């Protein structure tokens, strides 16, 4: 009986120790998050708000109207390569070139309109900015003169032009593009990074800075904060409809970029195959040195063969 009592006491003490340790870890993590992100002191309040989201919230409306486009984007050949773990170095390098052009336009317009009421609530440059990370990756793959080497597709240029256009004419539309790009990259960043690293045989994290968000300690909590801030943006009915249309456009522009990149890759592959065929070993023909006597004998044989064919025909 005493033995059983002793075991129960020991087990109880162990459970209490584990609970105290877990409680201490939670407190330390909370303190660390507060130091890294001053806005996270209000995270829990905004998290409760995000849990009560309804169909009238901007984030939910964007999610709803872009549902079909989202599926189409995931099923482009380029994105399927990532999902299947078969992304090539050339695919990734071309993707980085396009992302550089897109994020350069997006982040310059966000910076320029950072005080606009439709942009300020979702302006998180320290946590989300991608341009510097992409530049680092491009230098790793192309060298220090990467700016002279990168290639940008026509679809990428259209996307960039659209971002600069709305930055000047309708800054509130930028929220649709920021939401589509940043939260998409943040959601799949870690998984895609591992896939790219394994597929391309990269060592360490070099060349994969784009997928890293060092300013975000908890992607899920940050996405909740971001959606809450989105929903706080005050828009007229006309402006809201415009943002929803722009969200669909953002997905369509991304799909066009993915398709264009794959076409560029296909053209490159075809050229490589043609060069391979052109430079293949030519077929050698047999050359026989002839003499007058040999030519006479060959002529006689041809004449006999011709007569024989003529007789057979009749």
From TrEMBL:
One of its GO terms (cellular component) is endoplasmic reticulum. InterPro entries: Haem_Oase, Haem_Oase-like, Haem_Oase-like_multi-hlx, Haem_oxygenase_CS. It is found in: Endoplasmic reticulum. GO terms for biological process: heme catabolic process; heme oxidation; response to oxidative stress. Its EC number is 1.14.14.18. The chain crosses the membrane at residues 293-313. It comes from the Eukaryota. Keywords: Endoplasmic reticulum, Heme, Iron, Membrane, Metal-binding, Oxidoreductase, Transmembrane, Transmembrane helix. It holds the Pfam family Heme_oxygenase. GO terms for molecular function: heme binding; heme oxygenase (decyclizing) activity; metal ion binding. Gene3D superfamilies: Heme oxygenase-like. CDD domains: HemeO. Its main location: endoplasmic reticulum. The keyword Ribosomal protein does not apply. Belongs to the heme oxygenase family. This is heme oxygenase (biliverdin-producing). It comes from Larimichthys crocea (Large yellow croaker). The lineage of its organism: Eukaryota, Metazoa, Chordata, Craniata, Vertebrata.
